Structures are given as structure tokens and as C-alpha cells.
Amino acid sequence: MDDWTLTKTRLFEGVWEGVLAGPGAPDTPPAIEVTHQQEPLAGVEVTARPDRGDFVLRVPIPADRISDGVQTFVIRDRTSGAVLDSFALVAGDALAYDLRAEIALLREELDLLKRAFRRHCLETM
């Protein structure tokens, strides 16, 4: 059972989705558990796609689990205990120190400087 592979497809409207593929395309879906802070989430769905021989995993993210900081969700095969994947949501003050946010600020400042420099060049000609 630990030969399952999980590939994320999207996070849309509060639902994380992925595709589970296993050895030999078994008829029974794997027992999947998704935890946040070691507490299992409710509403996790595993749906078979017989035409493709795999399963779709849908994980609704409860609104009460979204808060400031980094929230990590772990997806496990309940039978073997193997971790198949994980995903994290980052919100609030934790983003203030995110490198991507810093780069965005630097780009805005660079654009501001470019406009000021071009204006200066036009005025001094």
C-alpha cells in the first residue's frame, strides 16, 4: 500500500485536490487521512476514476483551520502510515517576512525610481 503516489492538481475554492495512483489500479480506494496539528480533518473524499485507473482526492479546508502563520496539512495512507504529501497555507504576519513579498516591494521601489529617473532626464534636457 505504500506504493501510492499523490500528485497535486489544484487548490480551488478552499478545496485541495490531487490524483492518487497506485500499483495495478486496484478497485478499492486507499484509506487516506489528512491531519492538521495532528487532528484529522472531516470531509476528505477519495473518488475512483475507472477510465483512468486512479483516484481523485479532495480535501476541504475548514475555515476554522485558516489563521495567521503557517498551517501545514499532512496527507497519509492510514493503512501503512506513509506520508503521501503535505501542503501549507501561509497567511497574516508570516507573509511580512516572506522573500516573495520582499521581492515584490523591491520591484515596486525600482519602478518608482525608474519613473523618477526618466522624469529627471526629460526635465534636464
Key terms:
125 residues, alpha+beta, Immunoglobulin-like, 4-stranded antiparallel β-sheet, 1 helix
How is the secondary structure organized here?
Elements: E1 5-12, E2 15-21, E3 32-36, E4 39-40, E5 45-49, E6 54-60, E7 69-77, E8 83-91, H1 99-124
Antiparallel strand pairs: 1-2, 2-6, 3-4, 3-7, 5-6, 7-8
Descriptive overview:
The chain has 125 residues and is α+β, with helices and mostly antiparallel strands. It has one domain (5-93): Sandwich (Immunoglobulin-like), CATH 2.60.40. The protein is 21% helix and 42% strand. The protein has one helix and eight strands; from the N terminus they run ββββββββα. The protein has one helix at residues 99-124, and strands at residues 5-12, 15-21, 32-36, 39-40, 45-49, 54-60, 69-77, 83-91. The protein has a four-stranded antiparallel β-sheet with strand order 1-2-6-5, with no helix packed on it. β5 (45-49) and β6 form a beta hairpin. The model has no long low-confidence stretch (mean pLDDT 87).
Instruction: Give the CATH architecture.
Output: Sandwich
Main sheet specs: 4 strands, antiparallel
CATH topology: Immunoglobulin-like
- Separation of the first and last Cα atoms: 74 Å
Outline of the structure:
The protein is α+β, with helices and mostly antiparallel strands and 125 residues long. The protein contains 1 helix and 8 strands; from the N terminus they run ββββββββα. β5 (45-49) and β6 form a beta hairpin.
